[in-house]
Amino acid sequence: MRVRNFRGETVDEIGQKVLKALRVSEDEVDAIVAKDDLFEPVRAGIRKGSTDPAQGHYSAWLSLSVRSWRITAVTALFVVGTFGIIFTVLTDNSRPDLARDVDLPSPTAVSSPNATIDYPAVASQPNTPIVVEKPRARYRSLSQNSVISKQRPARDVEEVGEFQIVTYTDLATGDEAGQIVRVELPRSSAFAMGIDLPVENQMTNKIKADLLIGEDGVMRAVRIVN
Amino acid sequence: MAWRNEILVPRTESVGASLHAEATDRQLVHMTLAGDESAFECIFQRYKRYVAVVASRYFQSPQEIEEIIQTSFMKAYVDLGNFRGLHNSSLATWLGRIAVNNCLNILRSRTNKLDVASINISDSVAESLSADLTGRSAEELVSKRDLLEKLLASLSAQDRALLQMLYVDEMTVAEIGEVLGWSSAKVKVRAFRARRALRRVLKRFL
Fold first, then answer.
1. Contact check, Cβ <8 Å, A32/B79
2. B103 touches chain A (CB under 8 A)
3. The pTM is what?
4. Can you list the alpha helix ranges (DSSP code H) found in chain A?
5. CA distances from B100 to A201, B30, B188 (A)
6. Residue A225 in contact with residue A122, Cβ under 8 Å?
7. What's the CA gap between A149 and A134, in Å, rounded?
8. What is the pLDDT of residues B159-184, one digit of tens each?
């Protein structure tokens, strides 16, 4: 707070003086409110807008400002977008890593570790492309009605190798059911399981593989997917 | 509440409004809600001056004050069903808050349209203004209103209204809090900041 030299007024006192000078005087206020037609625009506005003040909420809702409409529009777009993403995720049936129920064929030869299991359907034609069934969509009705699902090809063709038994598993139970699970493995893990991989200088260290999982949750065999 | 009683004294009253002159605020509200338009006119006549005083803290032009009075009463009519009477606040306080919000909404919409060039004050004018500010009384400074308006243009309308209530109307912190719908602590903090902003503005010319 600075004190003036010759009159001793502080800045605050000068500020008060300025505010008092700018104040609308009582006479000016009286002149404004003394107008006879001051209520007429109010009366006209009331009659035009709403005749019943009890319905004020409805009128107020109708007279939403442009800003409120913008907020409403953005909110509506957000909600529609969110539902769109959820719908797309639910109807997306192109995920190859989903587990599928399969019946394990009984292996014909399990005599030695690292032996190739003789699966009639797979191993009889080891290097020919086979058709991998896509997992069923969780919501059939959504999937059938989806434009996205209609545009996608129904089946993917992949080239897979033979199932190779892993060394430490017990294949005594031949007729058990199991699951094939599509995973990505580090090449080092594949070597550790005894899978003979071709020596290739690839950029990625991971390979796709199908794991044959028994009913007890233990992996029985593995095959490499090209 | 002496300041409010002085403000609320009606100077003029129409014939329609005088029919309900004896009715209380609560009775007038009930009659308005029942569809009696003259009852609302009576409310208007009773509180138009109070709303005008509230508006004059934010706007100085008579046309703008007139507009604030009319739009505030129109909003009050539409929202009259929400008025909860003496249990919550008096009709004057309720109308005052509507007027304050109305003023702030208008000022907010004008913020982007502020002409910065109009705030500039030349050096020669600033020198004479400095001499006037220190050497003249408030009554003598009234003739320099336009210049003083430019001087305080950078002060926010909310700060200016708050300082006017404190310095000019000499209202207490509690009374200001009631009008603005703020707590006492908030009023004190905002008043401190507003004083600091006013000092900053004035020091440029002193």
1. no
2. no
3. 0.52
4. 11-22, 26-33, 40-49, 56-62, 66-91, 120-123, 140-145, 147-151, 187-192
5. 76, 24, 18
6. no
7. 12
8. 888 988 888 888 899 989 888 888 99
